[in-house]
Design the sequence.
């Protein structure tokens, strides 16, 4: 069950609904059903974590995220013997710790992040990995947002916008505005927001159209099924050059600048060649995920290749 039962309302009827094509490009996203690290997991990653699937409840109540156990390598909190935590607990601009101790390469070594019972802590910030309203919520192919979840603080950022999904959660909107202004100042051109928040039903229609055109296997590599898209969180933004094609964005100066600088404003490029096997999606240089500045700086400095590895969560390349 679970997902091969798309053919639900609308699909069976051949309903097309509003559906976005994005300059001929494909859009995909993400997903969700949680298998989050439970135990005290301070990450001294010892390679890939083994997934421990648990039941998904598609379309069920607000994500009561199933918590799966996985076995982290023995580890220490940053302030412990690993010493990754800076004396003053601050992060320097390049993401390294202020005391000069380099962060690990994302594969091994001491970490300053701890995860316990679905809550993650970095320095003095603690956020849920499972609450849809958390800035650190994990949405991937094994973790899912409730159909009725929508952010309550959607705002229109101040940059060129194409299409009808131009809102983001307040903090993400402000950060995207700042990122675009920095691009303008440093590169001479702003970013254009192509798609921000997308409601559950909208995502479902989007996916169904791709499914119809490309088949399930291919559609799943670039488009998220309803409930499994980061866009529903209001924390994801697809960007491109003004009037540009998203599919070419990664090869443009602005695309390269964005990949190198998004972290300064709290964003990461969520899907890359390096994490394809973890996310199950093709690289998307245009899809930015807001996680806030401290974590984005840490992500950048740590060399982590995905949010999953950053938090010590199992890879999620496939739907269950
Ligand atoms: Zn996207």
Sequence:
């Amino acid at each position: 069950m679970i997902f091969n039962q798309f053919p639900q309302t609308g699909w069976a009827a051949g309903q097309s609904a509003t559906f976005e094509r994005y300059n001929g490009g494909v859009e995909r996203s993400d997903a969700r059903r949680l298998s989050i690290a439970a135990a005290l997991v301070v990450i001294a990653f010892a390679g890939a974590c083994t997934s421990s699937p648990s039941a998904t409840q598609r379309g069920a109540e607000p994500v009561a995220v199933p918590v799966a156990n996985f076995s982290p390598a023995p580890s220490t909190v940053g302030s412990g013997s690993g010493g990754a935590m800076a004396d003053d607990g601050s992060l320097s601009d390049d993401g390294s710790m202020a005391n000069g101790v380099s962060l690990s390469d994302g594969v091994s070594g001491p970490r300053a992040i701890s995860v316990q019972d679905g809550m993650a802590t970095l320095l003095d910030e603690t956020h849920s990995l499972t609450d849809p309203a958390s800035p650190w919520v994990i949405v991937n192919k094994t973790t899912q947002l409730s159909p009725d979840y929508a952010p309550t603080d959607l705002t229109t950022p101040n940059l060129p916008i194409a299409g009808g999904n131009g809102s983001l959660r307040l903090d993400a909107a402000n950060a995207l505005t700042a990122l675009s202004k920095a691009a303008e100042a440093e590169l001479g051109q702003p970013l254009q927001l192509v798609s921000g928040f997308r409601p559950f039903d909208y995502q479902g229609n989007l996916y169904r159209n791709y499914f119809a055109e490309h088949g399930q296997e291919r559609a799943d590599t670039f488009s998220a099924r309803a409930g499994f898209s980061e866009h529903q969180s209001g924390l994801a933004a697809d960007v491109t050059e003004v009037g540009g094609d998203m599919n070419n964005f990664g090869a443009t100066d602005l695309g390269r600048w964005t990949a190198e600088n998004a972290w300064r404003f709290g964003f990461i490029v969520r899907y890359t060649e390096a994490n394809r096997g973890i996310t199950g999606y093709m690289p998307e240089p245009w899809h930015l995920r807001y996680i806030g500045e401290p974590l984005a700086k840490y992500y950048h400095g740590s060399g982590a290749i995905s949010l999953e590895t950053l938090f010590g969560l199992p890879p999620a390349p496939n739907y269950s």
